[in-house]
Design goal:
Distance between the termini: 57 Å
Helix content: 55-70%
Shape: globular
Structural class: mainly alpha
Strand order of the largest sheet: 1-2-3
Order of helices and strands: HHEEHHHHHHHHEH
C-alpha cells in the first residue's frame, strides 16, 4: 500500500501539468458531451467521399470559447479538476485503509518479468486491486468533478453563480444538497469498472494465446484499455449529462436538455437520438440530427 501511495504522489506532478495543458480541449469536450453546439455545421464529405454535414472540430470550438471569454476563460473549471486530482492522490489509499480492505500484491501487469504462462489468478488479483483503487479514487474526487463540469456548463447559460469555485459549491448545495455532488456517479463507476474487468479478462487470454514475450506483454493492458474504453464511452456521456441535469443551470434544463428522471432515462434518450457518442471524436465530427427534430 505504501508503494502504491508513493507512486501516486510521484505521478501527481505530471498529471497536474498534463491536465493544465490540455484543459481547454477537455472543456470543449464536456460542452460537446452536453450537446451544446453554438457553431452551425457545414457541408462536407466523409473519409469515404459521401456527402455529410460536419461540425467544427475541437480547436475551432476552443477558438469560439476564447472569443467569448478570453484566454483565461478557456480554463474555466480547471481549479476543481486540480483539487480532484490532489484528493484522488492523497486520499484514495487512506479511504481503502479506513475501510479495512487489503489490496493484493501483484506486479502490473502480471507475467512481464518472465516468459512463464499467464496465470488467471494473477489477472483476477490485478482486476480486484484496480477496481478497489479506482472506486476509491472516483468516490473521493467525484464531487470536484461535478463542480468542474457545472462550472464549464455555466458557459452555456452564462450563470454568474458558477463563475467561482466557492460559488459553484454553494450553488450545487442549494440545488441538490450533498447528493448533488454525486450526480452521475453510478454511470461513471459502471463504465470504468466494466472497462477494468473486461480489459483484465481480455489481457489474460491475449497474453496466454497470442503474446509470448514479456516485453510485448507490457503493452497488452494499455492497448486493451484504450479499446475497451471506447465501448464504455457512452456511459461517460451519460455521467456528464447527469452531473448537470435538473440543476439551476440552463444547460441542465429544457430546451437545452430534457428532464431526466434517472441516468437510465438519459441513456435511453441519448441512444434513441444517436447522441450517445458525443465527443468521442474531436476532429471529425459529423452532425446527426436528433429524432425529435426530424419528426
Amino acid at each position: 500500500m505504501e508503494e502504491i501511495e508513493k507512486e501516486k504522489i510521484t505521478a501527481l506532478h505530471s498529471q497536474l501539468l498534463v491536465t493544465t495543458i490540455f484543459h481547454p480541449m477537455e472543456y470543449a469536450k464536456v460542452l460537446i458531451q452536453l450537446g451544446y453546439e453554438p457553431l452551425p455545421p457545414r457541408r462536407s464529405t466523409t473519409l469515404f467521399g459521401r456527402p455529410a454535414m460536419i461540425l467544427p472540430n475541437v480547436f475551432q470550438y476552443i477558438k469560439f470559447i476564447k472569443a467569448s471569454d478570453g484566454y483565461f476563460g478557456c480554463y474555466r473549471g480547471l481549479s476543481a479538476r486540480i483539487l480532484g486530482l490532489i484528493a484522488s492522490s492523497q486520499l484514495s489509499c487512506k479511504v481503502i485503509n479506513v475501510c479495512g480492505i487489503d489490496l493484493p500484491e501483484i506486479s502490473d501487469p502480471p507475467n512481464i518479468i518472465t516468459d512463464d504462462e499467464p496465470k488467471l489468478e494473477d489477472y483476477v488479483k490485478m482486476g480486484r486491486r484496480d477496481m478497489i483503487m479506482h472506486t476509491a479514487s472516483v468516490v473521493v474526487s467525484y464531487p470536484f468533478h461535478v463542480v468542474s463540469v457545472r462550472m464549464m456548463a455555466s458557459f452555456i447559460g452564462k450563470e454568474e453563480d458558477y463563475n467561482t469555485l466557492l460559488g459553484t459549491i454553494v450553488s450545487i448545495y442549494k440545488d441538490d444538497g450533498i447528493l448533488g455532488f454525486f450526480h452521475g456517479l453510478i454511470p461513471k463507476l459502471l463504465g470504468d469498472l466494466t472497462c477494468i474487468a473486461v480489459t483484465g479478462v481480455l489481457a489474460y487470454y491475449v497474453n496466454k494465446y497470442f503474446v509470448k514475450t514479456k516485453d510485448l506483454r507490457y503493452y497488452t493492458v494499455p492497448i486493451l484499455t484504450f479499446i475497451t474504453s471506447t465501448l464504455t464511452y457512452p456511459l461517460v456521456v451519460v455521467s456528464t449529462c447527469m452531473a448537470v441535469a435538473g440543476s439551476s443551470l440552463k444547460a441542465g434544463n429544457p430546451p437545452a436538455m430534457p428532464k431526466y428522471t434517472s441516468w437510465q432515462a438519459c441513456w435511453r434518450d441519448l441512444l434513441r437520438n444517436k447522441q450517445h457518442k458525443r465527443g468521442s471524436s474531436l476532429i471529425f465530427r459529423y452532425y446527426i440530427a436528433p429524432i425529435a427534430a426530424m419528426q
